[in-house]
Amino acid sequence: MKRRDLLLATILVLAAACTATAAGKKAAIRRKHEKLQPQAAGGSSSCDVYRGSWVVDESYPLYDAASCPFVRKEFDCRRMGRPDTMYLKYRWHPNPPCSLPRFDGVKLLNMWRGKKVMFVGDSLVVNQYESLLCMLHAAAPGARTNQSWASGENPSTTVRFEDYGVTLVYFLSHYLVDLANDTAGRTVLKLDGMDEGRAWLGADVLVFGSWRWWWRKSWDYIQDGNTVVQDMDRTQAFTKGLQTWARWVDANLAQTSTRVFFQGYSPNHLDSQEWGEPPGKTCIGETQPLNNAAAYHGQPNPQDAIVRRTLAGMAKPVHLLDITFMSELRKDGHTTKYNGDSLGRDCTHWCVAGVPDTWNTVLYLAGNS
């Protein structure tokens, strides 16, 4: 009887120890997530730098795109003939008591010295990547740089700031899960496939982004485990794909020092009713941002809730670059016809210099926290 009581007591002690260990791990993960939240001036942890307004700042833009060797002509609106310039003069001003520090490219290059920074996603991730390259180039104009390209199913661009040993890579991945050809030559979107993730290992900083291409059917079939279908609900497909990505991040990066960010939803401005104007207009011809939150009437994108829910359930802390609201106010910031496209309807991508510079300023802030 005494041996049985001793055994029971031992089991209870071990169970309590396991519970305490699990609680400790959860608390550590929670602390890591909280650590990445930007702070207000004065140290308040409740600051939300993603809520605020756009104000005119005559010291802007942070760089002249004409002097940047890394921005493609499709994003360089001035080069492509955009005549107005006020869209370059707006700085994001968080609601008090929050503050957003001025971007310091030399400080960031020193912080990333000897490191590899990788952007993975679609053309909106390219928007942010090329903006950051221009911001760093302007901050260190004399720094030696090398640029190279790699072709294949997932082409990539690499720029290395030699004097700092900083390597910045853009890796094309529209879905963050595998898009591959089967033996019959058909294109298959594999919702549980992450073979391309091998290329992301070894990065010290990873910035991911995906959503826009989920609405384009660029596949012949979708494969989910052993199930193969021609198509499925795109929101459901995005959710499954993002969960696969999250499991890959947790399995491969949770025990590493790699910093992981996710680019929030970047809105388009195709419906003027979203900013209180009669129907039938788009962002074309818009030259000023909206001046307050109440002026925007667009509905939340389902991606936002899916991303937040997925990130909240991960073991690896992932900082959401919550760019949606600040970008919703910038109906004036798109490339429209100043992207080399004769149709001139691009209300999705952004001029560089422009709105993506603020995305990178927030990345800079989060990276310093």
Describe the structure.
The chain has 369 residues and is an alpha/beta fold. The chain has one domain. The protein is 29% helix and 19% strand. It contains 7 helices and 15 strands. Strands 4-5-6-3-9-12-13 form a 7-stranded mixed β-sheet, covered by helices on one side. It has a 4-stranded mixed β-sheet with strand order 7-8-10-11, with no helix packed on it. A two-stranded antiparallel sheet has the order 1-2. Strand 7 and strand 8 form a beta hairpin. Helix 3 crosses helix 7 and helix 4 runs parallel beside helix 5. It is globular. The N and C termini lie far apart (57 Å). The N terminus is likely disordered. Keywords: Golgi apparatus, Membrane, Signal, Signal-anchor, Transferase, Transmembrane, Transmembrane helix. It holds the Pfam family PC-Esterase. GO terms for molecular function: xylan O-acetyltransferase activity. This is Trichome birefringence-like N-terminal domain-containing protein. One of its GO terms (cellular component) is Golgi membrane.
Q: Which structural traits does this protein have?
A:
single chain, 369 residues, alpha/beta, seven-stranded mixed beta sheet, four-stranded mixed beta sheet, 7 helices, globular, disordered N terminus, signal, golgi apparatus
Give the helix/strand class: alpha/beta
Radius of gyration, CA atoms, in whole angstroms = 23 Å
Poorly predicted parts: 1-44
Run of helices and strands: HEEHEHEEEEEEEEHEHEHEEH
Q: Give the total of domains.
A: 1
Helix count, per DSSP?
Answer: 7
Shape: globular
Q: How far is the first residue's CA from the last residue's CA?
A: 57 Å
